[in-house]
UniProtKB/TrEMBL annotation:
It comes from Cohnella kolymensis. Pfam families: TrmK. It comes from the Bacteria. SUPFAM superfamilies: S-adenosyl-L-methionine-dependent methyltransferases (SSF53335). Gene3D superfamilies: 1.10.287.1890, Vaccinia Virus protein VP39. InterPro entries: SAM-dependent_MTases_sf, TrmK. This is SAM-dependent methyltransferase.
Length: 269
C-alpha cells in the first residue's frame, strides 16, 4: 500500500492502483471511469501529477463517497466527481488520458465503443481488466491504440492484468508498429506460428517478458479449461464433442507458448 499524504488525505493506495498511477503521463487531464472512492484521482492530484481529473462512476453511493474524499483532500478545484455511465460523464476533448480498472474487458469494450466523440483527444488509455483481456486488446487494435506497457501483478492472491496503450494517428506508422508488436518471432521465438487471438489473450509484451506471474496465471487458465473439457466429455449433447476439441486445442496452444518461456523463468516458480 502506498501512502497519500498530500492535502491531509491520509489515504492508502493498493499496489495495483500505484502501478496504474505510475503509467499516467505527467500533466495529464485525466478521467477515472468506475472511480469508486476516487482514490486514484486524489493521489494523482495531491502529488501534482495531473492538472485536472474527472472521477466518474455509474453508482450513486461511490459518487457520494468520492465527493467526500475529494472535499477532505481540498481538491474540489482540480477533481470533478460525476455520476454517469462510462465516458458519458465527459465532454469531447475534455481529457487526454482515461483510466478504467476493476471490471471485465468486455464491459470496458462496451464503454469505449459507446464513448463516441468523447474519446476525441484521448491519447492514453490505462486499463486493468480482470477477465476478457483479449477482447480489450482486439478493440485497441481496431481503434489504433498501441500497447506500450503490460504487466501482471499479484495482490492478495489475485493476479491482475495491467496495460497502457497510446493512440497512433498516422495509419502507416500504426501498421508498422502494430506488426512489430504482434510479431510471433519476438513473442515466442521457438514457435513458427501463434494465432493472433491467442496473442490478444496472453498479451504480446507479457509474452516477450514473462515473469513468474505469467506462467502461474496461464497454468490456472489451463486447469479451468481442463475442467470444462471434462464436463463436455461427460455430456450427451451433440455439439459437446466439437466444443471439447476446441477447448483442447486452446490448451495445446497455451502449453506451446509456456514451453517457449526461458528456462530461468520457468524454474523461478
Amino acid at each position: 500500500m502506498e501512502d497519500i499524504q498530500g492535502n491531509g488525505a491520509g489515504l492508502k493506495l493498493s499496489r495495483r492502483l500505484s502501478a496504474l498511477a505510475g503509467w499516467v503521463p505527467a500533466g495529464a487531464r485525466l478521467a477515472d471511469i468506475g472511480t469508486d472512492h476516487a482514490l486514484l484521482p486524489v493521489f494523482l492530484a495531491s502529488s501534482g501529477k495531473v492538472r485536472f481529473a474527472v472521477a466518474g462512476d455509474v453508482h450513486r453511493g461511490p459518487v457520494e463517497a468520492a465527493k467526500r474524499q475529494v472535499t477532505e483532500a481540498a481538491l474540489q478545484e482540480v477533481i470533478s466527481v460525476r455520476l454517469g455511465d462510462g465516458l458519458a460523464v465527459l465532454t469531447p476533448g475534455e481529457v487526454d488520458t482515461v483510466v478504467i480498472a476493476g471490471m471485465g474487458g468486455s464491459l470496458m469494450v462496451r464503454i469505449l465503443d459507446q464513448a463516441g466523440d468523447r474519446l476525441l483527444g484521448v491519447r492514453t488509455l490505462v486499463l486493468s481488466p480482470h477477465v476478457a483481456e483479449g477482447a480489450l486488446r482486439s478493440w485497441l487494435t481496431a481503434n489504433r491504440y498501441l500497447l506500450d506497457h503490460e504487466m501482471l501483478l499479484e495482490e492478495d492472491g489475485v493476479i491482475y492484468t495491467l496495460m497502457r496503450a497510446v493512440l497512433i494517428e498516422d495509419r502507416d506508422e500504426w501498421s508498422v508498429l502494430h506488426s512489430r508488436l504482434y510479431d510471433p518471432s519476438l513473442a515466442a521465438p521457438c514457435l513458427t506460428r501463434i494465432p493472433l487471438p491467442l496473442m490478444y489473450e496472453m498479451g504480446p509484451l507479457l509474452m516477450r517478458n514473462p515473469g513468474p506471474e505469467f506462467e502461474k496465471k496461464w497454468l490456472q487458465e489451463i486447469a479451468k479449461k481442463e475442467r470444462v473439457v471434462s464436463q463436455l466429455n461427460h455430456s450427451d449433447a451433440p455439439e459437446a464433442a466439437v466444443k471439447a476439441e476446441e477447448w483442447e486445442q486452446d490448451i495445446r496452444e497455451i502449453r506451446e507458448v509456456l514451453a517457449c518461456l526461458p528456462v530461468e523463468k520457468r524454474s523461478s516458480n
